[in-house]
Please model this.
Amino acid sequence: MPRYLSADYIFDGAKMHRNSVLVLNEEGQVISLSSEEEQGETPEFFKGILCPGFINSHCHLELSHLKGKIEKGKTLPGFIKEVVPKRLASGSEIDAAIVAAEKEMLDDGIVAVGDICNSEATFPRKAVSELVYHSFMEVFSPDPAKAHDMLNLGKTLQSRMKQMYPQSGSSITPHAPYSVSDSLFKLINESCYVDDGLISIHNQETVSEDEMFVSASGTMYELMNAFGNGIPHFRASGFRSLPSTIVKLPRCSNVLLVHNTFTNSDDIERALKYTPRIWFCLCPKANLYIENRLPDVNIFTSYSDKIVVGTDSLASNDTLSVLEELKTLKEHFPQLKTQMLLQWATSNAADFFGWKELGTFKAGAYPGVNHISTDEEGEISASSKVKRVG
Model:
């Protein structure tokens, strides 16, 4: 029997509807979204908003065992110094944390995840999960002599993922501008041209990242020099990080720029002149945790159809809830409307990943259905909660 659902507002992935009914079949597939008069049925009614299931566009699920173990506010170089030694743990501890973190995402209305992988730790869980995943096999080394080895490591992880979870999407992707040599960028690009892979890269997460590219100085430059054999091949471009790096990324792939904490308008314009296939991922709670700073979200809203939302990891967050990220954005940028925020968390992300059956209430989709409580104006507020209802 079909289910008939209604609410004060129904957000379909693009716009809000009032006095409407969402009809689902027994498998959760959308049959229709139309007016109450057209349906002629008495629907289940929810006070607040019904919207498609959330998509967490940036997560590090394999770091879930680090919850509460990294000190806040140490900036990115300090965060990296703590994560590198602390990420080592027993397999059972890592596995249990992954299972618990994934359950948290499911309970918080998340239906799909863009997940960063530096190991196979999450693969067994993904193979039996209800969630849809795209796994980014993240590679890095500033040493050009190690470029082929790093790419092969990414390919090995990708092969293992496909063996365990054949239907899952995956791609090889660079970690960050400061941690990938030009030689490795070139190999990643060649791989993307062959596989039409998605790219995700951490971008301008700390002020010293820009300093490194402008003048080969600053805390990030010093940190990278302290690792291994240093970075003798690095040369400052004289430009900020994003303009220096975007030209090393493929034009044939969708590119997700993650964090963007110190990105400015000029950076955005330069990047979009190089390729229009850019999305911007906001992870506000992680930005506050690591840098105690948020991106200037106002400069991104002109490109609202290219914004998505992520949670980062439990090493840099106390939850993997997309709604909590939206609430944080709303708190700090109250002019942001709920309709826009929900678009970032649903249909925009589905567009980036190519998940045509998610993020929308179009007929034929299997998006999942979330119920969100709102304030009297129908807006997300500090007290809003989310519950999966379909």
About this structure: Residues 10 and 17 are 5 Å apart (CA to CA).
